[in-house]
Design goal:
Layout lengths: L2 E9 L5 E8 L5 E6 L9 H12 L5 E5 L16 H16 L4 E7 L1 H9 L6 E5 L6 H6 L2 E5 L5 E5 L7 E3 H9 L2 H10 L3 E7 L2 H6 L9 E6 L11 H13 L1
Parallel strand pairs: 3-4, 3-5, 5-6, 6-10, 10-11
Antiparallel strand pairs: 1-2, 2-4, 7-8, 8-9
């Protein structure tokens, strides 16, 4: 029987910690780690649907979902995060679980998918990158933002654009502006983990159409009727079925 456990204070990079929720069943030796997108959290729609799919179909996977950032002591806040910090933190999460599990799978969405692709961990058996955000310099360059300075002199960017978070740090902005399609292509070419890329009919897909996914370790699957969050009729179920067929 499946049960959920809250895991607290898993140590990641920069002496920060993360909390998460582990769906587990006795004797399972395979784990799926869910990675949310920018501004998301461990309880986002796709993570919960992944958990429910495993339970409803009684699959032999444990599922771990977590927050890359959290406003709490000893946790990395969103205003202290970058893609680079997420890459390092995901690597630490994988290290933590690799001691127990024979197989680790990644289910990553949007910026989380970029994070997993760049990490390219040799401890991962297979990964599914769901509508990944591979092109990030263009959205950052086009976003309308203003600089805010707090009482301690720290600079932050404020934006009302729906393509970027409301409040984000200067390091993240500069990282995004410098993250060219060439850089993403290099990371795609270097992927050596068996990888399924599921692309939706979204702005993220349109931006990434110029990229080459001919890497022999990558399989692509395009869903014309799906949006970025897979909220359109039955698109989530179709996507999950495809992912778990690939994992098996």
């Amino acid at each position: 029987m499946f049960q959920e456990k809250v895991l607290k204070n898993i140590e990641v990079s920069d002496n920060f910690h993360i909390n998460g929720v582990l769906l587990t069943k006795e004797s399972n030796s395979s784990l799926i780690i869910c990675c949310h997108g920018l501004g998301g959290n461990g309880n986002n729609h796709m993570n919960l649907k992944t958990r429910d799919y495993v339970v409803e179909n009684n699959l032999n996977y444990d599922v771990f979902r977590f927050d890359f950032y959290k406003e709490a002591d000893n946790h990395r806040s969103f205003l202290n995060t970058t893609v680079e910090s997420q890459i390092n933190d995901l690597g630490k999460v994988i290290d933590f679980f690799s001691i127990k599990y024979d197989n680790i799978y990644i289910m990553a969405t949007s910026y989380g998918a970029l994070t997993s692709a760049v990490l390219n961990s040799n401890k991962v058996t297979k990964q599914a990158l769901i509508d990944p955000s591979f092109i990030i310099d263009v959205p950052w360059a086009q976003s309308n933002s203003s600089v805010m300075v707090d009482a301690d002199g720290n600079k932050f960017n404020v934006s009302f654009d729906r393509t970027v978070p409301f409040l984000f740090n200067e390091d993240m902005k500069q990282e995004g502006l410098a993250w060219s399609p060439i850089k993403s292509q290099e990371h795609i070419d270097n992927i050596n983990v068996d990888t399924l890329i599921v692309q939706a009919n979204s702005p993220y897909y349109q931006l990434s159409r110029s990229l080459n996914f001919a890497n022999e370790n990558i399989e692509t699957y395009y869903m014309e009727h799906a949006d970025h969050n897979f909220t359109k009729l039955n698109s989530m179920n179709i996507m999950l079925k495809k992912v778990f067929m690939y994992f098996n």
